[in-house]
Structures are given as structure tokens and as C-alpha cells.
Amino acid sequence: MILSRYERMIAKRYLLPGRGEAFIFLVAGISLVAVMLGVAALIIVMSVMNGFRAELFDKIVGLNGHAVIQGIGPDLPDWRNIARIAKQTPGVTSAIPLIEQPLVVTYGGRAEGVLVRGMRVSDIRSNSTIGGKIVMGSLATINPGSGRVAIGSRLAEALGAQVGSQIALLNPLGQATPFGTVPRIINYTVGAIFEVGVYDYDVKYIIMPIEDAQTLTLAGDSVGMIEVNTTDADRVDAILKPVADQIAGRAVITNWQQMNAQLFQALAVERVAMFTVLSIIILVAVFNILSSLIMLVRAKTRDIAILRTMGATRSGMMKIFMVVGTTIGALGVVAGLVLGFVFLFFRQNIVDFVQLVTGQNLWDPSVRFLTQLPSKTDPVEVTVIVLMAMIFSFLATLYPAFKAASTDPVQVLRYE
Q1: Cβ neighbour number for residue 108 with a 10 Å cutoff
Q2: The predicted structure's pLDDT at residue 71
Q3: What DSSP line would sit under 153-193, residue for residue?
Q4: How, if at all, do strands 205-209 and 148-152 pair?
Q5: How many CA atoms lie within 13 A of 222 on its CB side?
Q6: Residue 258's Cα: distance from chain center in Å?
Q7: Alpha-carbon distance 23 to 381, whole Å?
């Protein structure tokens, strides 16, 4: 939209408060603030939702893989051959044998339900989700037959255990005797404490060498499942289809989407709902721009009439008021972008401060899975938010601009 010199001058004049026009300027300022808050709220909420999904995906997949191969029965027969078939399949990056068994751990008179995971030592140390999150101790001390295990930080807090503590794992499926089944109890030393950042994992998981897990669970040489990672998590079904065809009748494949279907579907629905609801804030701000421009047109009716008699065109009048309204919207968008990114940068500090002031736990990891407020800004979403705010602001200027352009200077000046 190209403005002539006099049109730019008048538009600039109308953007600044004149004598007796403080109320109109106040309404325009409120419109700008409303656009700013709407844009900032959308950016903050959508970035947090994206960060929440990305963090959950990275950590859940980091521990459980893109898919798992499980036997139809309690064990996975011929697991070495199945692991070899999976590893040789194009697109598969790893096939890791695992044992997972829910057991009970005791320490200092406290007992907690846990999930014991047995892995090969090389797989434990190469797993970035575990290896990169050690808060105490070292994974180098965990070896087959060493009697050392790694436990989650929340579990350590619940038990009151630390590195070097002796914990006892109880397997109710022990050996049968004439007097009944005797539970199997084996003592282990805490060799490392990890904090993945997902509450359910940090409060439940105990990691040990797969040989020790087989001894604890009386599994012999068998394993419970094979964890598979691929080059593309979204194409995991297509990549593993050859494997599924070869192991049909012996084992089944469950991908990450099936394992966490309810969680990720709920996040997707909540993401759409939050975007829709928060967009209403921008819509309300646009109505404020509309009302402020209508008031401005009413206040400047005599000026418009004089300009028309001096040769100003209808299109020129429309452009002036369209530029005024769009400028208010653009300034609000810019301020909203700044506010949104500043909030995201200091998000955890803000949450901690509010918690300190209110005395309330706003981010309970037992409810929200993650231990910290995540964030991941999507440039495409930010672009959509900016365009939406600008288009709404532009549309809000059309009616006031049309009313200004349709002003009849003869009728106005006759009664002035």
C-alpha cells in the first residue's frame, strides 16, 4: 500500500494523540496491548506444547525405542536370530535385547514397586538418555556379576538411598519348596543415580546388566523383548514390515505410537484446542482496533470533509485509516513477539518465582511427567500467528476506512 506524502503525514498525525483525543488514544493503546498479549500467549503456549511433546518423545523413545519385539508367550524364543534379522533390515539402526520385570525394592524399611530393566552393558553405556543423565556415581562400575545397579533419582529420594547404599530386590516368583514358593531376594549396591527428566521413569526404573537380570528373574538365557530403533520414527511400521513377516506367529511388533497412543493423541487434541481458544484473544483485540478507528473517524469528520474539498480522494482517505489500524496491529505483533520470546527464555525462572511467591507447586512432575517446563518454538507456527494477527488487524480497518471515504463534505460543512 503506497501512500503519498500528504497521506503519510496525516496517517502519522492520526496515530499520535491530539488535543481532546486522549480517550481515543487510550482505546488504541489498549488495542495494541491486547494484540501484544494475544500474540505472546499463542507463541508461549504453542512453544510449550511443542516442547512438551518433543521432550516426551525423545525421552520415551530414548528408553523404549521406536518399537519393541515381544514374544507371544512370556518369553521371546530364538531371540538371537530375531535380533539378527531386525539388525540386518534396511532402516534399522539397533536391535537391543531387554528384560523388563516389575518387582519390589526395599531399603531402610521402605518398599517401592519398581520396573527392573536388564540390558547389555554396552547398551547401557551407549544409551544417551541414561548415560547423559547421571547425577551421582558412574555407569563404569556396573558390570555383570558386580552386584551394582543404576536407579532413578526420584526412586532414590523415595527410598532415602544414595550411591553405595545396599538395596534389596524381591522377586515373588522364587523357588518352589514343600512349604510353598519362597520369594527370591537379592541385595545390590547402588552404583549410579540417573535423572531422565520423566517422572515415571525416574521413580520406577532400576537398570542392571542383562546377565544379572536373568539370574534375578530366573529367566535362564531368554529375554523379554527386543528394542528396535530406526532411521525414521514416523516410518517405523514400513521399515519393520519385513521383520514382522518373518517373525509372524512367534512374536509381535509394537511401535512407539501404539505404546503411547493415548498420551500423544491427548497432546494433539489439547494443542489444537489451546490454539483455537487463545486465538479469540487476538480476535477481541481486533474488535478494539475496530472500535478505536470508528471513534477516530467520528472525531475527524470535519477534518475529512475539509481534506475532501481540498482534493483528497476517497481511496486516499481509505488508505490513511487502513494504515493507522494496520500499524496499531503491527506494533502489537512486534511487541507480542518480544514479550513471548523473553518469557520463553526465562520460563523456568518465572515458574520458580511464582512458586516462591504463592507457595504452590505449579509444575508437579508426578502429574506433568517432566521435571522442568519445556519449550520448542516452531518458526512455521510463529509465522502463522503473525500472519493471522496482521490479517485480522487489516480486516478490522476496512469498515472505518470505508465510512471515512464515504463522508460527504457538503453535508458535513453545511452544519459546521
Answers
A1: 11
A2: 80
A3: HHHHHHHT--TT-EEEEEEEEEEEETTEEEEEEEEEEEEEE
A4: antiparallel
A5: 15
A6: 19
A7: 35
Of the two residues 116 and 75, the one the predictor is more confident about is 116
Among 322, 283, 288, 289, smallest CA distance to 403 is for 322
Closest by Cα among 327, 329, 322 to 297: 322
- Residue 388, amino acid: M
Nearest partner of 228 among 370, 90, 74, judged by Cα? 90
Residue with cell 529420594: 157
Write the pLDDT tens digit of every residue in 360-374: 766 666 555 566 778
Query: What are the DSSP calls for 374-387, one per residue?
Result: -----HHHHHHHHH
Mean pLDDT, rounded, for 21-34? 79
Single-letter residue type at 302: R
CA 318, chain centre distance (Å): 43
List all residues 6 or more positions away from 230 whose beta carbon is below 8 Å from its beta carbon: 66, 67, 91, 92, 93, 236, 239, 240
Of residues 34 and 362, more confidence is placed in 34
SS3 104: strand
Which grid cell is 96? 537391543
77 or 147, higher pLDDT: 147
288 to 15, 339, 364, 387, 401: CA distances (angstroms): 15, 20, 38, 18, 15
Cell of 46: 504453542
Instruction: Give the whole-angstrom CA distance, residue 318 versus residue 13.
Output: 15
How sure is the predictor about 268, in pLDDT bands with cuts at 50, 70 and 90?
A: confident
DSSP strand pairing (110-119 vs 205-209): parallel
| Number of other CB atoms surrounding residue 311 within 10 Å | 8
Domain ranges across the chain:
5-58+263-414, 73-248
Q: Is 20 exposed, middle or buried (CB count within 10 Å of its CB: 0-12, 13-18, 19+)? A: exposed
pTM: 0.69
The DSSP symbol for 234 reads G
**Which of residues 408 and 221 earns the better pLDDT score?**
221
For residue range 389-406, list pLDDT tens digits in order.
Answer: 999 999 988 888 888 888
Instruction: Look up residue 316 and give its three cell numbers.
Output: 486516499
Residue closest to 152 by CA, chosen among 164, 162, 141: 162
CB 105 within 8 A of CB 114: yes
